[in-house]
Amino acid sequence: MTPARRVVTLPPSLRGPDALRFATEARNRGADVLEVRTDLHPADAVDSAALAGVMELLVSERGTPLPPAWVAAARWVDRDVVHAGDLAAPAGKLLASHHAERPLSTEEALRLWDVALPGSSLVKHIEPLGMESRERISVLLETQARLKARFGDGRVTVLAMGPTALPVRAVLARRNVLDYVAVGGDWKAAPGQRLLADAVREARAKGEGAYTGRLAILGTSIVHSRSPRIHRQPFDRIDIPEDAPVEALVDALLPHYRGFAVTSPFKIRLARHTGSPLDAINTLVRRRDRWESFNTDTAGARSVLERLGARDVFVLGDGGASAAIRVVGAEMGCQLRFLRRAEISGPLSGPGIWTWPDRITPPDTLRFEGARVAVIAYGAPARRIATEITRRGGTPLLLGAAWFIAQARQQRSLWETAS
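Below the sequence we write its predicted structure tokens.
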């Protein structure tokens, strides 16, 4: 099957030369199509012909009518299916679309598409994800299959939208013509879009072996995660809100994913949900009709405690990562002091470990005196945390990579046993 063409949307803040630079960068990073929408840009804000010279252009009518210059320059023209027949352009440019306001049954969705369309037009159907359940995902896959049967292979795209829709979009993308993705940064064209880099990585890996199900990392604010770079593809970054129904989501995805890496803030919740004897877990492995949970963070915790080389250690935070530190510290005979933010009143000295994610603001009372503080995050978050430690009088030790590699090796072995 031909991989879906990767579509990125021009952000509303970019005009003129900035829009061209965005298109060029997106193309260089693996995007195939640039979308420009009338609800995001007025007619004179972009040079449609110049953008079309960078990569194929998709222009989408959202409320405001499409400018003729946009239609002339475009490879595809997106209009609502109700008005699709009125397009003043060659039929080969038409992308008929429908954006449902609520989740639909397959029969309801098919009735919306009981229209005559040119044989060369594309079809795009979008719905809110709604409840996270296996049944809901099955309905979307059935809608996709039935639309493909009606209009033909190579014409249909079905998308889900919502704060937890990313993994469902990834599953649907395997049989879609177009895959709408986000370049990165603070702006996305729609909730639930996965990152361009992850879609490109998956496409490059196709053909390397039999498809056995997806892998992913589950967490909040995980755009920096390196997990997709080192684990077998397809591997998604499922970045969802802290209050998302992660328990229902992993159960819904059981037929489609063979494993998850679990990070903050879901380690404790999913330990409880899977009935784990552990306080926190960071790995789920599919066992036919259920999830089995593990905590390979213990390997990372051992690596960090060994590098600290101390027997008396303070730990900032008492969340999921701390659970692994507690287990390993007991095995190694370490004296550990776990400190919540409200419990910090005086300067801290000696060796310590910072477990708070960088999105958590440390207390104003936090100060260090001659303290060596291990940072178990990596990348940009680790650098931000290190700056905080230095500003407060401590010496940061960047050990996040050591923690990450140690626990990831065990995760990889566990996922190979998935059934």
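Residues 134-151 form the longest helix (18 residues).
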